[in-house]
Amino acid sequence: AGIAGVDVSAIETILLWNSQVHRVPVNAQGPLGNGLSALLLGRSSITLQGIFALPGVIDADYTGRIYAMIWTLSPPVSIQEGSRIAQLVPFKANVPCKVNQQRGNAGFGSMGLEAQIMWSMEINKTKPSISVELQNAKNRPEKIKLQALVDTGADVTVLS
């Protein structure tokens, strides 16, 4: 018997100025020890205040600062430094590794595929087209605007 999770607190004051998800650093860092992974879950007390911590998984081989993903429906909301906003619920993972790859301190999708962009659009009687602006700060031109006809039967669209 005992507690199921360990509370974690915000290590800085954060203003949630819109209803987007914000990364809030907490007073925990990986690895958690003893080969443990953890679920990062919101505390019920912040949910009652209209602040939501989105659930996340902290892998046993993660070595960086842990962040809670926080959002609110009623901005602006201030989360004060030291506020207990989430809890880590440890568990022993029993999933076999397919590759021998260490995560290190990279998080939020670091083990996934390269970035992918998915467009959605309203279907109507006109030809399906999309206006796109691509930005690249390292090369010229920095911005390029494209107007493209979308092939609704294609799996992949290539821009060059």
From TrEMBL:
<keyword id="KW-0378">Hydrolase</keyword>
<dbReference type="InterPro" id="IPR001995">
    <property type="entry name" value="Peptidase_A2_cat"/>
</dbReference>
<dbReference type="GO" id="GO:0004190">
    <property type="term" value="F:aspartic-type endopeptidase activity"/>
</dbReference>
<dbReference type="InterPro" id="IPR021109">
    <property type="entry name" value="Peptidase_aspartic_dom_sf"/>
</dbReference>
<dbReference type="InterPro" id="IPR029054">
    <property type="entry name" value="dUTPase-like"/>
</dbReference>
<dbReference type="Pfam" id="PF00692">
    <property type="entry name" value="dUTPase"/>
</dbReference>
<dbReference type="InterPro" id="IPR033704">
    <property type="entry name" value="dUTPase_trimeric"/>
</dbReference>
<dbReference type="InterPro" id="IPR051592">
    <property type="entry name" value="HERV-K_Pro_peptidase_A2"/>
</dbReference>
<dbReference type="InterPro" id="IPR001969">
    <property type="entry name" value="Aspartic_peptidase_AS"/>
</dbReference>
<dbReference type="InterPro" id="IPR036157">
    <property type="entry name" value="dUTPase-like_sf"/>
</dbReference>
<keyword id="KW-0645">Protease</keyword>
<protein>
    <submittedName>
        <fullName>POK9 protein</fullName>
    </submittedName>
</protein>
<feature type="domain" description="Peptidase A2">
    <location>
        <begin position="146"/>
        <end position="160"/>
    </location>
</feature>
<dbReference type="GO" id="GO:0006508">
    <property type="term" value="P:proteolysis"/>
</dbReference>
<keyword id="KW-0064">Aspartyl protease</keyword>
